[in-house]
Every structure is written in structure tokens, then in C-alpha cells.
Design goal:
Layout: E1 3-7, E2 10-12, E3 18-25, E4 34-39, E5 46-51, E6 58-60, E7 68-73, E8 78-83, E9 92-98, E10 101-102, E11 106-110
Parallel strand pairs: 2-11
Antiparallel strand pairs: 1-3, 3-8, 4-5, 4-9, 5-6, 7-8, 9-10, 9-11
Length: 112
């Protein structure tokens, strides 16, 4: 079974930072492009960031460009999202995903 388990979310004040992790299993992680997707209450999913299988190419939504950094460790089957200068509008459930599906998410709440 494909499993994508995200963690690292929490409550943080505006301007703060969080690092999300996603541990993958059940497939050859290093062969897949990976993404982070978020969904805020009452809104549709938004692609936040993506990276190719080798980690050499990345994509960022305009809303997070310059603040978020995606990375991966293929030896550890783990995807990361470093989030800095967080804003209240970053509040959402964050999921890691690939062409095989989307895993369980982690809640990020940015509030004072």
C-alpha cells in the first residue's frame, strides 16, 4: 500500500516558521516527483510546491515563493517543506502527494 504520512504542523504566530515532513512507503520514492498541497476550510486544494524525483527542480506557488523551501531525502524516503515568514492565510491542512495519491495531512494554523 502507498502511504504518505505528513507531520510537523502546529500553531505558530505570524512571522514564525515550521518544518513539515512526509515519510513515504509502499513505492519507490526516488522514482516519483512529489508535491505539497494544502487545503483551507471551505476552499479547494492548492498546489504549494513540487520537486522532481531527483530533487534538482522545484516549483512554488506565487503565494509562497521566497518563503517556503521544498526538499527531499531519497535515502530516507522523506519529503520536507520548510516554511518561513508564515502568514494567517497559510493556515490549512498540508498534504504530500504524488501521482499515486495523497496522504494524511498535517494541520498548520498561523494565528496570534
Amino acid at each position: 500500500d502507498v502511504q504518505l504520512q505528513a507531520s510537523g504542523g502546529g500553531l505558530v504566530q505570524p512571522g514564525g516558521s515550521l518544518r513539515l515532513s512526509c515519510v513515504a512507503s509502499g513505492f519507490t520514492f526516488g522514482s516519483y516527483d512529489m508535491s505539497w498541497v494544502r487545503q483551507a476550510p471551505g476552499k479547494g486544494p492548492e498546489y504549494v510546491s513540487a520537486t522532481n524525483s531527483g530533487g534538482g527542480t522545484s516549483y512554488y506557488a506565487d503565494s509562497v515563493k521566497g518563503r517556503f523551501t521544498i526538499s527531499r531525502d531519497n535515502a530516507k524516503n522523506t519529503l520536507y517543506l520548510e516554511m518561513n515568514s508564515l502568514k494567517p492565510e497559510d493556515t490549512a491542512v498540508y498534504y504530500c502527494a504524488n501521482s499515486r495519491g495523497r496522504g494524511q495531512g498535517t494541520q498548520v494554523t498561523v494565528s496570534s
